[in-house]
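note to self: dont lose this again. the chain is below, predicted strucutre after it. 260 aa total, dont forget to put it in the shared folder this time
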Amino acid sequence: MKTYLQEMLKRKDLLYFLVKSGLKAEHRNSYLGYFWWLLDPLLNVLVYYFLVVVILGRGDDVENYPLFLVIGLVAWRMISSTVGSSSKSILRYSSIINQVYMPKALFPLSFTISQMFNFAFGLIVVAIFLAIYGVMPDWQIIYLPLIILVQLVFLLAVGLFLGYITVFVRDIDNVLTYVTRIFFYASPIIWVGGRLPPEYSWVVDINPIAIIVTAYRDVLMYQNSPDFTGLFTILIISAIAGILMLRHYSKNEHKIIKAL
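---
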């Protein structure tokens, strides 16, 4: 595995190229280009605000509900887009992989890093909503980098796993559509976690996405410290899973080539 990691470091120029090309390709044929990174979360807020507040008549009892909504949607957008793109990352570059040797783990890593730039624009939208509603984060804002780090490590581990398994089980890509939808509604993205009946509260307690989204709201919106126990549990498990996946990549890359 040490040799594999050294090979990845030698190919950091390839990682840079993959990230750069991925960012360019995302909105290559659109008129608004990268402006969509700002427009997309805004449109998502409008759609879900209309659905939840206007159609269903909910959300009025949540203070600054649009702000509550935009934080959840921006965090979720990073998670769902990373899962979707990293799962197809190796398959997308199969023609290159079959011609030149390169560490295959670089591909899911590159797509995860690419989505971090997208997420940065989402945080700009969150900052705009904070200003509109006059909500000023307190000293707990110092925990924001920690939450972002936990989210990144978590998504890197998930991306490495999905990128590998999708090569052998192509139907995973289709199944992910429904899995991500389940996690969307099982997490407090558009609803408050405390509204669940007591017998279902464990869904939020053990859901890593719920823990991450709630942590963002705690430090940005409610001036509270995040759930450190939940965050560090996610960080440790994700780090171990990521290391195990890199080890698995280093020993089984020949299987990926055969499958492609």
